[in-house]
Every structure is written in structure tokens, then in C-alpha cells.
Amino acid sequence: EFRQLVQYVIDHHLGNIISQSWGASEATLKDAKSQQEVQKWDALFHQATTQDGITFFTASGDHGATDVVDQRGSVLSPTPTMAFPADDPWNTTVGGTSLSEIGGTISETAWGGSEGGISAFFPMPDYQKLLPASVQSELHNRRGIPDVAGSADPSSGLIFYFLGHWVHIGGTSASAPLWASIGAVANQMAGHPLGFINPALYKVATSSKYSQDFRDITVGNNNVNSSVKVKGYPAVPGWDAVTGFGSPIADKLLPDLIAAMPG
């Protein structure tokens, strides 16, 4: 049904930015029927991003370095696990950060719930082969997520107006639409839909413009210490499996992203 919704958006030209805050654990999608559905989604994402000018911003998930193993979503995997469609390489996947203010100074660190790691389903896409060799070796030629990040900690998340009231929310279901809004501005600046932005995004982020276009998050991790204990990943300089390349400095990033787009 979700796939039909996305197809409806494409067929009726309802927009070129799609924000996705749903996910299903890879641990629940290993059977043959599930894999067939994953492949149908992957084909749709490929078509939509490269042929229909759609950009997908997808929440990485809120379980840190793991995800659930049951259909009810109540039991966490004791081993590192990612979510679909966050793991799909045709998505721009958004992790989460925490904001804090001390003495008038605002700092940004990795949010512990930011889901990130290595996909069991998808190989490393070409654009991630721009990452340093040391990072690629840690990914074992698999798709790593997230790509980028934004404010997601519920204690410092976002407010939005819903049904007549201001509501405070968090999770990567906040950071993904935050990036979707930035993507919409990028389309407006370019004068046309950018579509699949990941190759250009990685080109910019692995260039000398990285420090001016992104806030590199280097503090925190997504270790899980709840009903299960799963060793996650640390936030480190450059790309990492908690915050990706970090948070955007949008006024600097967008012109560089547009200039890096092919054609």
C-alpha cells in the first residue's frame, strides 16, 4: 500500500520531494516474499530518482545500532541490524543529532537513538566508494547508513503546527522532513527537480568544501544499552555510521550541491 502511495505521487506529479518516516527491520524481511517486495521497492526508487526527478529523504530509524526482530516491533535484535528503506541506496538517509546550550554556546552531538550501520541487503553504492579507504574497509563493501543527519533528539527536536496546536517531536522522523524542506529549497534554487542527489552530495562532502557545508559531528555514539546490549558506532571526523556527514550548513551546501549535480 505504501508503494502504491509513492506510485500515485509520481503518476499524478504531486511533488518531487518525498519524506519517509516508516521502516521495517531487515531482520523481518529475510524470507523470499519479503525480498521480492524489497526488490520491487528498489526498482521503484531507482526509476523515481533517476527518471522522474524524485528525491527521497528517509529516516534512518530510532533504535541506535539495532532494530526489531518481530512484526509487533517490541523485541530488539541483539546484533547490529538496520531498517528498510533506510538501507536502500536510492534514498538519502537521515540520522539524528542532539542539540544543547551551555552558557549561550550551542553544541551538536550524535543522538544515541540515531540508527546507523551496515546493510545486510545492499552492496556499497558507487557514491560511497568516494569515502576514505579506511571507512570503506569498515563497511565491508556494503551500504552504510545514514548519509546525513539533523536535529532528532526528542529533548531538543522540532516543533510543528498540527491540528491547531504546536507539537514537540523528535526522532529521525523529525530530521528526515527537516532535510526534505532543505531539498525543496534546493529544487527551487536550481529551477528544476534535482532528483537523485547522493552522488553529488558525496562529491561535495568528500571535497575541500566539506567543512564549510556541513557541521561534522564527532562526539557521541549509537550504542544500545536497553533490553539488549549492542555495540554501535562512534561519531568521528568525516562520515560515520551514526550521523553520516553530519548536519547541513544549508546556505553554503545548497549552491555547492546544485553545482555538483550532473548535466
If you had to describe this structure to a student in words, what would you say it looks like?
The protein is of the alpha/beta class and about 260 residues long. About 30% of the residues lie in helices and about 25% in strands. The protein contains seven helices and 15 strands. Strands 1, 3, 5, 6 and 9 form a five-stranded mixed β-sheet that branches. The two termini are about 35 Å apart.
Question: Which percent band covers the strand fraction?
Answer: 15-25%
Structural class: alpha/beta
Give the biggest beta sheet. 5 strands, mixed
DSSP E strands, number: 15
Unreliable stretches covering 5 or more consecutive residues: none
Order of helices and strands: HEEHEEEEEHEEEEHHHEEEEH
Tell me the quaternary state.
single chain
Helix percentage: 25-40%
What are the salient characteristics of this protein?
263 residues; single chain; two-stranded antiparallel sheet; 30% helix; globular
Summarize the structure.
The chain is an alpha/beta fold. The chain has helices spanning 2-11, 32-51, 133-139, 172-190, 198-205, 210-213, 250-260; strands at residues 17-20, 24-25, 55-59, 83-84, 92-102, 105-110, 117-123, 142-145, 148-151, 158-162, 165-169, 214-215, 224-225, 229-230, 247-248.
List the helices and strands and how they pair.
Elements: H1 2-11, E1 17-20, E2 24-25, H2 32-51, E3 55-59, E4 83-84, E5 92-102, E6 105-110, E7 117-123, H3 133-139, E8 142-145, E9 148-151, E10 158-162, E11 165-169, H4 172-190, H5 198-205, H6 210-213, E12 214-215, E13 224-225, E14 229-230, E15 247-248, H7 250-260
Parallel strand pairs: 1-3, 3-5, 5-9
Antiparallel strand pairs: 2-4, 5-6, 7-8, 10-11, 12-15, 13-14
Helix pairs in contact: 4-7, 5-7
